[in-house]
Amino acid sequence: MISLPTDNLYKFIAISGISLLIFCGHLNWNTQQTLLQKLEDIETEVDVLSFQQTTLDNDLKKDKDTTNKQRSNSPIAISQKKQLSNIQNELQIKGILLKGKAKSLRRITNDSKNLFVFTTTIGTIGILMAFFGFFMWYYKVQVHHDRSIKKIH
User: Fold this and answer.
1) Residue 77, H or E segment
2) How far is CA 79 from CA 65, 84, 87, 88, 126, in A?
3) Backbone phi, then psi, for 22, in 5-degree steps?
4) What are φ and ψ of residue 68, in 5° steps?
5) Cα(37)–Cα(45) distance, rounded to whole angstroms?
6) What is the spatial distance between Cα 53 and Cα 59, in angstroms, rounded to a whole number?
7) How far apart are CA 122 and CA 78, in angstroms?
């Protein structure tokens, strides 16, 4: 009966398991870093928008305090009010866009939770494959090989 060499098969299983583990770990880390970067970007945009809104509110308050009947009907005052109104509308649009980005980030986060479960399962299978491959290679092949070398010497 011809005996096929199995040591390469066991090594292949072990190395495949380690490769799966490394791939899954990298995928999880990369996904987490991407999500954190997006979150930081959104938080920065929210901070900028809050600052702009506060500045606009202060400008509106100053304009309201200094406005009197003569000035409120002047073309300059009307123009300033329109500018402030346009800026306020732009800020509201930016706020809506940020809410959309936040919703998108929440969806991606939920998807990444599913990815985490999947990659953890595959990583566990990789660990088991590596353990099985190295165990089988050592006890089925290497021990016998070492014994035959000791007999020769």
Assistant:
1) helix 75-136
2) 17, 9, 12, 14, 68
3) -65, -45
4) -125, 180
5) 12
6) 10
7) 65
Most confident of 36-45, 128-137, 142-151: 128-137
Instruction: Please give the Cα distance from 150 to 146 (Å, whole number).
Output: 6
pTM of the predicted model over 0.85: no
Whole-number pLDDT of residue 71: 55
Residue 16: is its pLDDT beyond 90?
A: yes
Which residues does 58 contact at the CB level (< 8 Å), separation at least 6?
none
| For residue 48, pLDDT beyond 70 | yes
CB-CB contact of 88 with 116 (8 Å): no
